Amino acid sequence: MSDQSAPSSCTPDEKNAATSAPSAKNAEKKEKKAKPADLVIPPKKPKLSKAERRALQEAQRASKAAGGGEGGGKSSGGRGAVDIGGTGGDSGALPATSGGGDGPTKGSRAKSVNDEEKKDTVGGDERDSRGRVSGEDKTISLFSHLPRPKAPSEILNHLASISSYNLQSNFMHPAIPTLGHLYTTHSLLGGNARCRAMLQTFALLLQSYTPPSASRDFRHDIDHSLLKPAFQYWTTQCRPHSVSMGNAFSFLKLAVASLERELEWDAAREILLESMEAYVTERIEYAGKAISRHAGSKIQEHGDVVLIFGKSEVINRLLLDAALVDKKSFRVIVVDARPLLEGRDTLAILARAGISCTYILLNALTYLMMGEVTKVFLGASALMSNGSVLSRVGTACVALLANSNHIPVLVGCETYKICNRVQLESITGNELGDPEEVACTDCARVGPSNRWNEMFDGRGGGGEETSEKKEKYVLADWKDKPNLKLLSLMYDLTPSDFVTGIVTEVGILPPSSVAVLLREMGG
Amino acid sequence: MRSGTYRYGTERLPAAARTADLLRSIVGATRWTNAAQLLTLLRGIGNELAGIGGGGGNGGGSGNRDPAIGNVIRRVMYAARDEADRAPVDDDDDDGGGGGGGGGGTKNSSSTRGGGESFLSSMLWAHPRQTAVGASHHRRMRSGSGSVGMISESSEHHHYPPPSTTTSSTQVYPPHYYARRDDLRPSVMEAIQEMISELEDLHKNINEQALQHIHNGEIILTYALSRTVELFLKAAAAKKRKFQVIVCEGSPHFGGHVMARSLAEAGIDTTVIHDAATFAIMARVNKVLLPAHAVLVSLANGGLIAPSGSNMVALAAKQNSVPVVTVAGMFKLCPMYPHEGQDTLNDLISPSTVIDYRLMGDPVLSEVEFANPVHDYIPPQLIDLIVTNIGGFQPSYIYRLLAECYHSDDWEAFE
């Protein structure tokens, strides 16, 4: 308003100022005002887009309502926190809104502005992060491209809704949510295990499947009504699929598509079941044996000290074969890490087989690595085509330390886990775990699905115990504390420089050959 | 005397401060008349504390191994030596100090000559253990000193037995330390007081440099619990710098949880991650701040003793070209070399935090070894900067500061 009037009042003055010589200060002022007047004056009203105008309104409304109600650290933290998502321009329009203390209405209005501007979710997170909507505000901008892990309550609600879902037209075989539940609760871990379970479930589904009517091509129908919905259900509702699952699923779709058109359903079913059986047998079981043989040849007769991390089916098998079948004597150091603490299962398996073991957590790795370790064996969830290894979080740290101490690192991985993706670091492709796992520091937990067990125990009447336990945790109330976030990753990427050799069923290869292998396999 | 039970993540500063207080009261209350007595007294205190668990070094006490205590004592010893080497303010005559009189006489002639003598004698006494073979050897060394005034009188004094009997080798001091010096007490007390006030202002001085190193928009990674690092970050946040902190939880002790809570309460955007995710997250980190239990110096070293797991963090940072900054007070500067590698100043504590005892009851699992070290040794190549209360230095420079803090004779004082 004042802006608009200023140039108009200025113009006649400006002419006077040009001719006469007022005091220097006035001249300066007039000069400054004169400058825009000299140019072709655009309309003084700034061209705000609709969204920006709304944001401005929001800001004005919020600044009236906020008063002194800004939790100092809270809002300043919210405003200033680095937005790695790259929406730095966002913070300019929105700081006042972050200070607004009035609840859900502001939150929702701000959210709609956010949607309108189509910015990153981070702005929205910071704005309504009074802990009111738990889980949403605690998103970490670095990982906003990854799906959020399911909270236990969500799972229960979802399960409750399944039963009603089945009564509708789209029938879902009960085996599907059963398996899905195992995935979500981390009861079933590991690439091979998940893949086998998936193929077994598909086998079950195929056996109970009847093609609709003779005219339609059942191949398309299988794909459309059986395979795809199940797989999508698992991936979106339960847990993002692993590369092993993905490759097996592609194989299955290919098998279905390559059936002959004129086949009867019974014959077709037989073929499909056989090929799935063959896939599991060849690419998982036999591959495991071959890997065990190749890598086992690298273990010396006596005196080796082998370091392993977490739990890997392939690695366990090769160590057991070396100890029990080849009768080699060696020591094993089992390195474990939170949150899953899978190394305990490995420890139990190896110790019961009579192998002398040492068990440490990741922090003690430096202490042990420098002395006595002769080789490192690691498992993998997937191999990227540039030779880097996607594996359980913590594997990269082990490989890094081994590399800096010049200890050879062998990664055991079947070829069906090779993925034609290229990944440069651990952030672009990963999976978020349950953040409560970070807060819960009880070392007596006996398994990865402990939180689920605790929850169900609590419902069953062991509630007092679990709530007591919960109070002991330093971060038990992390959801209510502003500025505090917890991050739990499931995977990390080991760069190919750290890997000495990759043991596959076709032999021990350098990491650079993975791309060749992919090409040979026709991937 | 303090008890030696070790708690992970205890702050070094209170121990150091209380050592300084203790020294002040002991040194103030005890009767000592010359520098040698004072130094022997201090050495005795050091051995006592090392026996309980401070002082650092191998063999000594079990458990604590807190080198900060020894460092404080070494500093005071250095101050005492410094004062003793300086010319006395007044000329004191005394009976027992015939040599002292002679020494004082020569000293009185010119202060520079006194300074020259002290340099000469300090050169001769540079490796006192080697001269402690016997008193005769002693005499031979002295006669070779070339300063005539000292010889005749000092021969009366070499029979001064060093009062402490616990040390394996008898410590002998340059002859002028045995001169009675009444002015020594106030200056030594003043030095102790300086030490105490340095410890009190430690965090203030360190935090003054916070703004130099922490800037807007940075993502800083830190490991486990450290009071120094926590105050450093809070100081930067108080000056309105907006940054994010990622805290590694530091299992099995979970110091990181406490740290994160405290930082979040100060308004800093904090994220807690598992230690296993360190390498994964390092691609996005701008800077790593590490705490130090002790900063080891000898010759060109500059390595750190830090909480177990920090070596991995430092390695991951190096791999990703992320600068590693250590924040530590000067009292943590230890004149020792990491001869034992990862075992330097390290302890293996109970594995109860690694695996639950209930699980260990399984007969199969009882055959399994567990290891739970407290510290890591980080070699100096992985450290880019050490921020102390007197400024920031690169690890390869730290050894120069040694000469200003401790006297070379005292380096291995408490082993």
Automatic annotation (TrEMBL), chain A:
Predominant location: cytoplasm
InterPro entries: IF-2B-related, IF_2B-like_C, NagB/RpiA_transferase-like
Assigned GO CC terms: cytosol
Listed SUPFAM superfamilies: NagB/RpiA/CoA transferase-like
Entry superkingdom: Eukaryota
Biased composition (Basic and acidic residues): 26-36, 112-139
Ranges of Gly residues composition bias in the record: 66-91
Keyword Acyltransferase included in the entry's annotation: no
Keywords, sorted A to Z: Cytoplasm, Initiation factor, Protein biosynthesis
Span list, region Disordered: 1-141
GO molecular function, one term: translation initiation factor activity
Polar residues: bias regions: 1-11
Subcellular location: Cytoplasm, Cytosol
Keyword Ubl conjugation: no
Assembly, per entry: Component of the translation initiation factor 2B (eIF2B) complex which is a heterodecamer of two sets of five different subunits: alpha, beta, gamma, delta and epsilon. Subunits alpha, beta and delta comprise a regulatory subcomplex and subunits epsilon and gamma comprise a catalytic subcomplex. Within the complex, the hexameric regulatory complex resides at the center, with the two heterodimeric catalytic subcomplexes bound on opposite sides.
Record family assignment: Belongs to the eIF-2B alpha/beta/delta subunits family.
Name of the protein: Translation initiation factor eIF2B subunit delta
Organism, as annotated: Stephanodiscus triporus
From TrEMBL, chain B:
Ranges annotated as biased composition (Low complexity): 143-153
Ranges of biased composition (kind: Gly residues): 97-106
Signal peptide feature range: none
GO cellular component: cytosol
Location(s), subcellular: Cytoplasm, Cytosol
Keyword field contains Repressor: no
Residues covered by region (Disordered): 84-119, 132-172
Primary location: cytoplasm
One of the Pfam families matching this protein, by short name: IF-2B
Keyword Manganese belongs to the record: no
Keywords, in A-Z order: Cytoplasm, Initiation factor, Protein biosynthesis
Single annotated GO MF: translation initiation factor activity
InterPro entries on file: eIF2B_beta_subunit, IF-2B-related, IF_2B-like_C, NagB/RpiA_transferase-like
Quaternary structure and partners: Component of the translation initiation factor 2B (eIF2B) complex which is a heterodecamer of two sets of five different subunits: alpha, beta, gamma, delta and epsilon. Subunits alpha, beta and delta comprise a regulatory subcomplex and subunits epsilon and gamma comprise a catalytic subcomplex. Within the complex, the hexameric regulatory complex resides at the center, with the two heterodimeric catalytic subcomplexes bound on opposite sides.
UniProt similarity note: Belongs to the eIF-2B alpha/beta/delta subunits family.
PANTHER family: TRANSLATION INITIATION FACTOR EIF-2B SUBUNIT BETA
This protein's name: Translation initiation factor eIF2B subunit beta
Source organism per UniProt: Stephanodiscus triporus
